[in-house]
Amino acid sequence: MSWHLLKTGGSLMAIKGKSAEEEMSSVPKAILHEVNLEGIELGRIVEVRKGA
User: Fold this and answer.
1) How many CB atoms lie under 10 A from the CB of residue 10?
2) What is d(CA 46, CA 34) in angstroms, rounded to the nearest whole number?
């Protein structure tokens, strides 16, 4: 939806839940960052970069 707004080399970030790994299988070159914050259930941020 927002992909056209990214410049080449830009990144799109999305906060995801436990299903992030399953969803990433359809997105080539996606990077999963696990975030641990005290008092908050494990979160995941998926980063997809537009070609450099």
Assistant:
1) 13
2) 9
Per 3-state DSSP, what percentage of the chain is helix, strand, and coil (rounded to 5)?
15, 45, 40
Q: Give CA–CA dist 52/45, Å, rounded.
A: 21
Q: Which residues face 47 on adjacent strands?
A: 13, 31
DSSP H stretches of helix in the chain: 20-24
**9 half-sphere exposure, CB direction, 13 A CA radius:** 1
Interval 2-35: pLDDT, tens: 778 888 888 888 877 777 878 878 777 788 888 8
